[in-house]
Write a structure and sequence with these properties.
about 300 residues; mainly alpha; globular; homodimer; 15 helices; Farnesyl Diphosphate Synthase; two-stranded antiparallel ribbon
Chain lengths: ~300, ~300
């Protein structure tokens, strides 16, 4: 799909950036989650199962692409990206459990409660949750406690009841609310459920880059737009995708009679809306030059991905 | 039970201190967990159900008693106590779930997954977990980010896989390991499962009081000893207590064939060991005068409690 702002060669840089960030995040988790020789071995194995070697690493990629705009040290970017990925992975582990979405497959592998058991899934999620904050409070991640506290406050807000966890609760309500859920309600739900954490990825780069809040408007607009586009594409993949390619079960939303962007707008309008949001996201970067090409490429990837 | 160091009148001050801290923590949670008028209402109601109006508030009490030694502002002590209580309550919600301990009653009320449902219990626990760190990262809790980061790092460590969550995993392993679990293994398990968070309560007071690490030895010894005594008494209550008085099911450990202090030592030796630990905990406070009487009273309460 060709977008208005596609007259740069930024798509070329994306595969290498994804490969680099993925390798760095995997290596980081490999060290962080070294399996202890005691009764916690199974816990660490379950965390490794979920955290290593899977996913698009979209969030760490967004952090490192934003950090690159402001010359933030790469190692710091990866450590903060890993902290956000800890939150993302914990939410997937809990969300896949039988009492929540009841999914057997994730990233092409059995989910944690399938590969291990439900109790281990609860504790592996809780452990990754705590590790996220331990990482951000580590001086190796950033030597300035003012920066650390701002990162921690924002991550806690983005992942807690005013963010991701709150959005997941709205999502559960959506399954029973039926027609009462309109487009505004679904948009708000998704802004909390996935948008808040994606927004934090850009915010984290700006915090480490010591960009003043008033200088973050463009990045916030970008994050808002790709967050929403991301979820619309997720709904499209669920409605039309192939389970093997997507790496998890599809067709679940329609099966559950759940209100989604696709059920409310229809697939063609949803696809056009996602494309419009991605164009708009790219226009939010107009103050940046070629150094923002990776963020532009990520925006297009959000639209064109098949998993 | 009269302990060696009981020649002070400190027991008199305990009921008033418990009542004051309980009221302050309840009032704090009442504001923090104000129910929003959207799809997250049920989530907040579930958090309120678990967090307000129950429990001994032992952890906030320990924080405020330690803070009082170093003239730390009372409001800061209560906010940090509330953050720790968020972690404690989240762990109870998850631990009570059917895939974990499968408990129907907690603090004399139905557990969250019974009063609501399992999905809400997962998300209420996750939300309280995030709120704990949001509270510590709030400048209202402490204006010095150096102090905040130290509090956050220590709480994350005490509650994550190297602390509470790791101990819970060992506890699951204990149920299947049988005879392989000796006294050293149970002690280590409990030091992670409950000892680490209790230890953090004292540490938090010392951090806010700007006590250097080398000055914290006595408080650490106290925390270590009451943490272990607390768990031995828990095992005794489970083996011999009355469910109505304890506020949750009892006799579960023996029923599950689980190795506990009582099963490994026998009740009389376990009781003597707990008394010895409490005496030792009180001796660790010898450098403090009457201003540590509340900590002394808490130590005796740990031993004499019936719930």
């Amino acid at each position: 799909m060709v977008t208005e702002a596609a007259n740069d060669r930024s798509a070329d840089i994306l595969p290498a950036a994804i490969a680099a960030v993925s390798a760095e995040i995997d290596a980081f988790f490999d060290t962080l989650l070294a399996v202890p020789d005691d009764g916690r071995a199974r816990l660490y194995q379950a965390m490794r199962h979920a955290a290593i070697g899977g996913g698009k690493r979209l969030r760490p990629l967004l952090v490192s692409a934003t950090c690159a705009l402001f010359n933030v040290d790469r190692e710091r970017a990866i450590r903060v990206g890993a902290a956000i990925e800890c939150i993302h992975v914990y939410s997937l582990i809990h969300d896949d459990m039988p009492c929540m979405d009841d999914d057997d497959m994730r990233r092409g592998k059995p989910t944690v409660h399938k590969a291990y058991d439900e109790a281990t899934a609860v504790l592996a999620g809780d452990s990754l949750h705590a590790l996220a904050f331990e990482l951000l409070a580590d001086p190796l991640t950033h030597p300035d406690p003012f920066v650390q506290v701002e990162l921690i406050a924002e991550l806690a807000r983005a992942s807690g009841p005013a963010g991701m966890a709150g959005g997941q609760m709205m999502d559960l309500a959506a399954e029973t609310a039926g027609a009462a859920f309109d487009l505004a309600a679904v948009t708000r739900l998704q802004q909390l459920k996935t948008g808040a954490l994606i927004g934090f990825c850009l915010e984290a780069g700006a915090i480490m880059g010591r960009v003043r809040p008033e200088g973050r408007t463009g990045l916030r607009g970008y994050a808002h737009d790709i967050g929403l586009a991301f979820q619309i594409v997720d709904d499209l993949l669920d409605a039309e995708g192939d389970a093997a390619a997507v790496g998890k079960a599809v067709g679940k939303d329609a099966g559950a009679g759940k209100a989604t962007f696709v059920s409310l707008m229809g697939a063609p309008r949803a696809r056009a809306q996602a494309a419009m949001l991605v164009d708009q996201a790219i226009r939010h970067l107009h103050l940046f030059g070629a150094e923002a090409d990776l963020l532009r490429a990520i925006a297009r990837f959000v639209l064109d991905r098949d998993r």
